[in-house]
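Quiz preparation item.
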């Protein structure tokens, strides 16, 4: 199981970064037998700031999404420098 960050999605002046859990089931011969992709959260960056949204229906902080997906730290740093 891995947690991955998807490609950025532009929506007007917002940028959305999806975070998903990827589970790959392989055979003994290392062939892929099944894949399950589960969306977990989104990091949303807009001119007014950044925030995280959980698909579990629970509140999510920026710190929590960074714990799930560390590569988003670079995304946030770059966003803050551009402001």
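Solution:
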């Amino acid at each position: 199981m891995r947690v991955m960050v998807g490609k950025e999605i532009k929506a007007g002046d917002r940028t959305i970064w999806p975070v998903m859990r990827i589970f790959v089931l392989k055979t003994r011969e290392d062939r892929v037998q099944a894949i399950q992709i589960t969306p977990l959260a989104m990091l949303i960056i807009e001119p007014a700031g950044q925030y995280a949204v959980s698909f579990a229906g629970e509140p999510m902080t920026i710190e929590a999404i960074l714990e799930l997906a560390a590569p988003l730290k670079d995304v946030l740093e770059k966003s803050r420098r551009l402001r």
